[in-house]
Design a protein that fits this description.
10% helix; 9-stranded mixed β-sheet; mainly beta; 37% strand
């Protein structure tokens, strides 16, 4: 006697069961609330005068080695502004045009030496438009893949 079972029905039933299992953990009540959402970054966010410095950190192969500044600057003003970065033995200045966003990843800027080893924090003074602040900046190395291309060569 020939069977009249439809082979599609068991597949459809299994698919529906699998979908319900997958969706069981998707409860919209457990969503992250908007006020709890924020970008995760490795660096420090600093404001000096009206200049915004985002995700600021330095990368170096080691203490006493060349260190590259990383992060971004934003000049929301309608004036040109000079921003100076200094540690115990180095100083560099970046000139920002009105409304300019400046990315250190695209504009290689270096200190001759890092004061601290990777994994530590270092004190960097950031000055702009007659205002200054001392930032406790993270020091990183190439252990994170995305930072590896920015590590200055060891001397």
């Amino acid at each position: 006697m020939a069977s009249s079972r439809n082979p599609i029905r068991p597949i459809a039933a299994f698919s529906a069961l699998l979908l319900s299992v997958v969706l069981a953990g998707c409860d919209p009540v457990d969503e992250i609330q908007p006020e709890e959402r924020r970008a995760v970054n490795l660096g420090l966010n600093v404001d000096v005068a009206e200049i915004e410095l985002g995700n600021f950190l330095i990368v170096t192969p080691g203490a006493g080695e060349t260190a590259r500044l990383m992060g971004s600057l934003l000049n929301p003003t309608e004036s040109e502004v000079e921003v100076t970065f200094s540690d115990s033995d180095d100083e560099v200045t970046v000139t920002l045009l009105p409304g300019q966003q400046y990315a250190f990843q695209e504009n290689a800027t270096f200190f001759e030496t890092a004061d601290e080893p990777p994994g530590a924090r270092t004190q960097i003074e950031v000055s702009a438009d007659g205002d200054s602040t001392v930032a406790d900046v993270p020091v990183r190395d190439g252990s994170l893949d995305w930072l590896e291309p920015y590590i200055p060569p060891a001397e």
